[in-house]
Amino acid sequence: MFVCHGNICRSPMAEFIFKDLAEKAGVLENFYVSSSATSTEEIWNGVGNPVYPPARAELLKHGISSEGKRAVQLSKSDYEKYDLFVGMDSNNIRNMLRIFGSDPDGKVHKLLDFTDSTHDVADPWYSGRFDVAYNDIFNGCKALLSKLSDK
Questions:
Q1: pTM, two decimal places
Q2: With contact defined as beta carbons under 8 Å apart, do 3 and 9 qualify?
Q3: So what's the pLDDT on residue 151?
Q4: Residue ranges of E strands in the chain
Q5: Top-confidence residue, 127 or 140
């Protein structure tokens, strides 16, 4: 899921891909983009894990650094702070709605819903295919940036 403010994310890959696209388009300053975990699996004793090494390696293949990023937990109070919450899959959406209690302002969306596809982003944790996840996320972020730039 990644959260966006000022117009717009759990996936650190989505956070950094979106930031890269927005920077290349010259509009990064219009957004606050950050990723948050919808579960506590990546957070131990209040300290979040760094970006998973294979995800970090896939980003680096595309010239994108995720240096310094650590997992943080999404909280109910985040709903009022941000304009848009974007999940990678149906489980993220379900977890976000559980954390928020509801989505009265229609801020919660699945990333690939911004494309012509409505499937979930391929989960590389199970497949090991970080390249496939990267492509899904890249296409979703590109479509999302286009939609937000049209506003």
A1: 0.90
A2: yes
A3: 63
A4: 2-5, 32-35, 43-44, 47-48, 84-87, 108-110
A5: 140
Catalytic member of 113, 123, 129, 131: 123
Has residue 123 got a pLDDT over 90? Answer: no
Copy the structure tokens of residue 18. 């979106």
The answer to whether residue 4 is catalytic is: yes
Q: Using CA atoms, how far apart are residues 137 and 121, in angstroms rounded to an integer?
A: 7
Specify the range with the lowest mean pLDDT, choosing from 9-13, 46-50, 60-64, 100-104.
9-13
The single-letter DSSP state of residue 68 is T
Tell me, yes or no, if 10 is annotated catalytic.
yes
Percent of the chain at pLDDT > 70 equals 93
From the number of C-beta atoms within 10 Å of its C-beta (0-12, 13-18, 19+), residue 26 rates as exposed
Q: Which of the following is catalytic: 9, 10, 56, 141?
A: 10
Strand order in the sheet with 84-87: 32-35, 2-5, 84-87, 108-110
Distance in angstroms (rounded) separating the CA atoms of residues 151 and 85 = 17
Told to judge if 123 belongs to the known catalytic residues of this protein, a careful annotator would answer: yes
Comparing CA positions, the residue from 149, 137, 143, 146 lying closest to residue 58 is 137
